[in-house]
Design brief:
Distance between the termini: 135 Å
Strand content: 15-25%
Structural class: alpha+beta
Strand order of the largest sheet: 2-3-4-7-11-8
Number of domains: 1
Low-confidence stretches: 57-67
Shape: elongated
Largest sheet: 6 strands, mixed
Radius of gyration: 37 Å
Mean pLDDT: 85
Number of helices: 7
Number of strands: 13
């Protein structure tokens, strides 16, 4: 089965726009059934003119390009708890990723609307869970899915404290990291079987926008995810969006390459200037030493001249003395 590749923002958004699919995926990732879901995608948009298709007789009008999508979902879980789930998908590594993630996370902590009413009608801050889909993954961890869970511990006894507190829950958060480049045909768990739709090892040779999934190997309960991605592959707007994302990424990579090349030129120039400054400094020092030697030589000549003058005066005095 040929389905759209969800590593693209436009496909990921299409996938999560279906509430049933979104609940299936979040339930699997969180390890708890999601009963209620309020989803929103925060989009950074720019207008671009896509490349004309062969069937277009007239120039194509401006299209909206989604450069960055930040997904936020307020959920109620089967145990009655409520969470604010932040989802990031990052296809390629960029130097500013961590700072951007921190800024977005900080804005969600500070947002006044991220609250809920408890059973007593009191306003509570929604505890946050972050989920990162990383195309290039972490440096030191090989596991496809990593859950970073907090624990309450009695500092004196080391024993676990099992009852969560709203104050702590509002100021700290759990995290889930999906390493797309570590999936590599790993299908050990129900979750890893679901995440097979992100395994880039299944990319069609002729088109990186498409994954070739064996439907019979995919869990029955997640078939709706496959069907949604199959529909995405048939949507021309979605396919155009993937083309634009490729163009944008290629432009960013080219700019990064040019910046690296320019940085190397600047570094080489700085090293050359440093070497030149050092040579000038050595030359100045040599000139200074030469001047000092000349000054000492002139001083020695002056002393010789004074000695000669004193000798001449002595000879003159002796002559005058003998003439008397």
């Amino acid at each position: 089965m040929h389905v759209a590749n969800p590593i693209y923002d436009v496909v990921f958004k299409y996938l999560l726009d279906d509430e049933k699919v979104a609940r299936l995926m979040l339930s699997a990732l969180l390890g708890k059934e999601v009963l209620e879901l309020q989803f929103r995608a925060n989009e950074v948009r720019h207008e671009v003119r896509p490349k004309p298709r062969k069937e277009d007789r007239l120039p194509v009008g401006p299209e909206i390009l989604v450069l960055r999508l930040d997904f936020t979902a307020a959920v109620r879980l089967e145990d009655g708890t409520r969470k604010l789930v932040l989802i990031e998908i990052q296809k390629a590594h960029n130097a500013g990723d961590v700072l951007r993630f921190r800024r977005y996370l900080g804005s969600q902590y500070a947002a006044g609307e991220n609250v809920y009413l408890d059973q007593d009608g009191a306003s509570r801050a929604l505890p946050i869970v972050t989920i990162y889909f990383l195309g290039e993954g972490l440096e030191c961890i090989d596991a496809p899915v990593v859950r970073i869970n907090r624990h309450y511990t009695d500092a004196a006894t080391g024993e676990r404290v099992t009852i969560p507190d709203p104050f702590v829950e509002a100021l700290t958060h759990d995290c889930i990291v999906v390493q797309i480049n570590r999936l590599k045909n790993r299908r050990r768990t129900d979750l890893e079987q679901l995440l097979a739709v992100f395994d880039q090892g299944q990319t069609a040779r002729s088109d990186p926008h498409i994954l070739d999934i064996l439907e019979e190997n995919f869990p029955e309960r997640y078939q709706e995810v496959l069907r949604r991605l199959l529909r995405a592959n048939a949507e021309q707007d979605v396919r155009d969006g993937m083309d634009v994302e490729d163009d944008t990424l290629a432009t960013l990579q080219e700019n990064a390459r040019k910046e690296d090349a320019l940085r190397k030129v600047v570094e080489d120039q700085a090293k050359a200037l440093e070497k030149k400054d050092k040579a000038l400094e050595e030359s100045a020092q040599a000139l200074q030493e030469k001047d000092k030697a000349l000054q000492e030589k002139d001083k020695a000549r002056e002393e010789d001249a004074r000695a000669m003058a004193a000798k001449d005066r002595l000879i003159e005095e002796l002559k005058r003395h003998l003439e008397r």
